[in-house]
Amino acid sequence: MKKKSLKAVGTVLAVCLCATACGSTASTTTEDNTVNSETKEASTEQASVVQSQETAEVSQDAKEASVDNFTVTYLDDGTVMLSAYSGDKEESIIVPEEVDGKSVTVIADDTFMNHQELKAVKIPDSITEIGTEAFMNCFELENVYLGISLEKVGDRAFLYTDINDLSLPESIKEIGNSAFSGGKYTELTIPSGITQIEIGAFMNTSIITLHIPSNIQLIKKDAFSGCNQLIEVTMDEGVKEINEKAFSNCKLLEKVTIPSSVIKIESDVFSKCPELKEIFIPESVTEIDPYAFYMSENVTIYTPAGSYAESFAIENNIPYVNQ
Fold this sequence. Notes:
Elements: H1 2-61, E1 64-67, E2 70-74, E3 80-83, E4 92-94, E5 98-99, E6 102-107, E7 120-122, E8 129-130, E9 143-145, E10 152-153, E11 174-175, E12 196-197, E13 209-212, E14 218-219, E15 232-235, E16 241-242, E17 255-257, E18 264-265, E19 278-280, E20 287-288, E21 300-303, H2 308-315, E22 320-322
Parallel strand pairs: 3-6, 4-7, 6-8, 7-9, 8-10, 10-11, 12-14, 13-15, 14-16, 15-17, 16-18, 17-19, 18-20, 19-21, 21-22
Antiparallel strand pairs: 1-2, 2-3, 5-6
């Protein structure tokens, strides 16, 4: 009987131990499942964040849109650039100052190129830059308002237009090659922020009198060539060099005054100016190209006695007067 009783007790103990072991296993499994679930949620959350970041990056990359006949590019500085104008009926345009609450600061290269229907354009005060050839070949374009924040005008920006009144804002710091060539404007005030006149910048225009301010140090090739209405040119102290053909083919040019800051006059600077009668050259000038006055046969050089300009005049059989 005792043996049987012990056997029963052993059986009960075995059952209890088994239950305990099973309970422990179940608990461990539950904890593992909980951990796995939390890990999975964290992983999903992390994936969601990454996906959100990727979406944001894609959104930033998608910078172009089309608004009011312009392609709009959202720039990294939070402003907007306009390009590729597609209208073809409007003779007068007011360029928008804002798009989607963002300031328009740039008119891109070629934006209005070949739009021969255009006659008048108003550029807002928000614009700081007009790109290369932006208005080139707008043959009928007569009236242009340039905003007060404009700093840069690109190469050939208004080449082959018909601008009849040009007012350059003081904000301008850079004017590109042939930027305003060919216009009908008769007056020109050069902004104080510019230090040099670029190649052909104002060639073939209708300027009558020209004053070069003291901020200009260099007048580049063809800068004012072919200005057939130009009669007189004066320059303030500051100009150091006048490059080749800068004032060539100015058919009515009669009088030029060169400041004592100039040291060099290059080839053909005043060539083919048949009406040029008086040019005042200071003793600071130590180099004049032999062809500086080519085919300007009526010129007389006014210069101090003993100057380089005097000896140049004597060597090249040009009349001179000592001052």
